[in-house]
Write a structure and sequence with these properties.
Elements: H1 3-31, E1 34-37, H2 65-73, E2 77-81, H3 90-102, E3 106-112, H4 130-149, E4 154-157, H5 168-182, E5 187-191, H6 198-208, E6 211-213, H7 222-232, E7 239-242, H8 251-260, E8 266-269, H9 276-290
Parallel strand pairs: 1-2, 1-8, 2-3, 3-4, 4-5, 5-6, 7-8
Helix pairs in contact: 4-5, 5-6, 7-8
Length: about 290
């Protein structure tokens, strides 16, 4: 082989290797901005409805959830629904935190559904009923304590379906949770769920000093999504939920707005259905294409 041919071949090989390394860096930088919710695997995870009674893990143990995300998808940002934790004992969360660290992962949010079953949002710190509101504040503070044990930066209560005309009690309740959370380095976030007008939701977020989860999927149409996301992203801190619903909105447009608004948090995948592993991979591939 002539020296010139050898050198040209070496240069080409080096260029190919450099391109591969560059692509790996781009992929890793995107994955560093992506998380996933335990709710995506609800059919496989056991849900605790009464923490006074021991319950066995399902096909997927929440203790194995961080490692599964890391090994299967390269995702190291973990979001867990409260009822997927099967104990309220501090030692349980210390064990979970150790499993996070072993997977080189971290928590990004805990979703709080304080009702014993379902997603009704009856027991919520935003309830117009003062007794329910007080009970929900106490429960949320307990979850803030648990979040602090696993270094989770935020919790997201279900804000309920109706607030009434007087927003002052709700704002005051959220302020109290904001202050308690600040003492533990845990923020309070709320998302758009379709029942509270977006302007009212943003007003409460702003006046209570809490933060937003700009969910990309909880909108009736694309026009509502575009307006709503631009209102919510200035208050975003930890996560922005990502859904795929092309009949109602464009994911490309939603991601574009997040970039336009300077979002620096985690895009947390939210899926559901009979094939959770495949559905999460599909949404992950779509999001990676737009980031």
């Amino acid at each position: 082989m002539r020296r010139r041919d050898f050198l040209m071949g070496s240069i080409a090989a080096a260029a190919t290797a450099a391109t591969g390394v560059s692509q790996d860096i781009v992929i890793k930088s995107k994955l560093d901005r992506i998380g996933a919710m335990s709710g995506n695997f609800s059919d496989l995870l056991t849900q605790a409805t009464d923490w006074t009674q021991p319950v066995a893990p399902g096909k997927l143990d929440i203790m194995d959830f961080p490692a599964m995300l890391a090994e299967r998808y390269g995702i190291h940002n973990v979001e867990v629904e409260d009822r997927h934790f099967l104990s309220l004992e501090p030692a349980y969360y210390e064990k979970f935190h150790a499993r996070l660290q072993k997977a080189k992962s971290r928590m990004v949010n805990i979703d709080l559904e304080l009702d014993t079953t379902g997603y009704r949002g009856t027991i919520t710190p935003c309830s117009p009923d003062p007794q329910i509101r007080a009970h929900a504040i106490e429960l949320t503070k307990q979850w803030i304590d648990r979040a602090a044990l696993i270094e989770c930066p935020s919790v997201m209560p279900n804000q309920g379906r109706t607030w009434g005309d007087d927003l002052t009690p709700i704002i005051d309740a959220l302020k109290s949770l904001r202050d308690y959370g600040a003492s533990k380095n845990v923020a309070i976030i709320l998302e758009e769920r379709g029942s509270i007008p977006i302007d009212t939701l943003v007003k409460v977020i702003r006046e209570s000093g809490i933060h937003a989860n700009p969910d990309m999927g909880n909108w009736k149409d694309e026009a509502s999504m575009e307006r709503g996301l631009r209102l919510m992203y200035p208050f975003a801190l930890t996560v922005s939920h990502v859904k795929w619903n092309p009949d109602r909105f464009s994911l490309a447009t939603a991601v574009g707005i997040s970039k336009e608004m300077g979002f620096k948090g985690i895009y947390s995948l939210e899926t559901g259905g009979p094939e959770p592993y495949a559905m999460q991979q599909d949404l992950l591939d779509k999001l990676m294409a737009y980031l």
